[in-house]
Amino acid sequence: MPSVLVVLDLVGIFVFATSGALVAVRKEYDVFGVLVLAGTTGLGGGFLRDVLIGAAPPAALADWRYLLVPVAAGLVTFVFHPTIGRQERLVNIFDAFGLALFCVTGALKADEFGLGPLPAALMGMVTGIGGGMLRDLLAGRAPLVFRSELYATPALAGGAIAVLGRDAGLPVFAVAGAGACTCLVLRLLAMWRDWHAPLPTGPASV
Fold first, then answer.
1. Where are the domains of the chain?
2. Which pTM was predicted?
3. What 3-state DSSP class applies to 197?
4. Phi-psi region of 205 (alpha: psi -120 to 50; beta: other; left: phi over 0)
């Protein structure tokens, strides 16, 4: 993976790990639980992507930085959680940045492994939403992506733009920026305008 994508990956891991650690603190987990949830949130999506595309060993196990970053994020959140917790809106914005970074790095890595544009974009989406889904399941919450919020769709769009641009021969930095900005803008607009995916109407049974 090009160095620029590694940097984006690590930044995204830190952001997601912070959100996972904050959930653990609010659930009153001990420091071990905080670190587990931080690591799961930060690394879960990338781990799932690497397993699905056959990247062995997964980056989370092959590079010590991928393990150090979520530990650092978890410890920082554990110590300074009163301050971080008061910035809920800011944490949500950081989460949007993390989603934007992950969908791009995930899609481009899948593209490097020979997947077509649509499967690579789907792997970008998995990278972006996978860690959060695992976090919510471990914390006993309904996953955010299933609660009608527009979350997966921006990730899929950002990953698709990055892959299509890369396949067209554009520089990695340019396509990564375009894909990440698309995902970020869509996610922030969804948060600001309270956009939701359609929900079923009427009774669930007859």
1. 3-193
2. 0.88
3. coil
4. beta
DSSP 159-181: HHHHHHHHHTT--HHHHHHHHHH
Nearest to 92 by CA among 14, 8, 10, 16: 16
Neighbouring C-alpha atoms within 13 Å toward the C-beta of 37: 29
CA distance 71 to 89: 23
Report how far residue 184's alpha carbon sits from residue 190's, in angstroms, rounded to the nearest whole number. Answer: 10
**Nearest CA to 45 among 107, 131, 159?**
131
pLDDT single digits (tens) 184-206:
999 999 988 888 878 777 776 65
Write out the two tokens for 56. Answer: 């062995």
CA pair distance 57, 59, nearest whole angstrom? 6
Neighbours of 125 (CB within 10 A): 28
Judging by beta carbons within 10 Å of its beta carbon (0-12, 13-18, 19+), is residue 81 exposed, middle or buried? middle
Per-residue pLDDT of 30-67, as tens digits, reads 999 999 999 999 999 999 999 999 988 888 888 889 99
